[in-house]
Amino acid sequence: MIDNVWRADAGAYKKMLAEWLAQGILQEQLPEVAALQGVMQQSEHHPEGDAYTHTLLAVAAVDDDEDPRLFWGVLLHDIGKASTTVRACGRWQAHGHAASGAVLVPQIMTRLGYPGLAADVTWLVKHHDFALSWNLKPGDSITPRQRKLLAHPLFMLLRKLCMADAVGAMNPSRSEDFWRLIEQEIANSDSRANQYSLQQRQSSFHSTREENK
Known about the structure:
With 213 residues, the protein is an all-alpha fold. Helix content is 63%, strand content 3%.
């Protein structure tokens, strides 16, 4: 019986998943994850093996005291690969798997009894491979659309999902240069925001002085 009361942290859900695996009921509870068994990935990017093995390794990389939305985002991030993976030009490809997986998340979370987590987990799954599509290089400028993603309230959870994804691919240092660029952009954005706030306070101060003269 699934407890549909939100659990306090990721560790409680990791324990629940471990129990499903030990009892052999993953197929019953999460057929979308079980379907990743045997779904092949390109070996130079995923030496760990199929998408199922990758997913379990990524989940193991989530700290027990983390936000439960991170657990679910990591567990479900590649479920779209079951329907999108094909062999083309001698390579395994899963184009569009993030979007395909995100479509499945609301019904999964509702079925398991956690509809309140569905929207945030859907967003995490939908955007988990954003780093690949951006393909940023030193000196590149961030577009307004990209800057909007960086400012999203869930972005820090998304970053942790990407880190767990890299660990699951047995390459925790993957995209280090990219994340350095992102960190610099976030720092620059914070600096711009602080400067704007200071200017606003100064403007308000001078306006008040003029009014009181």
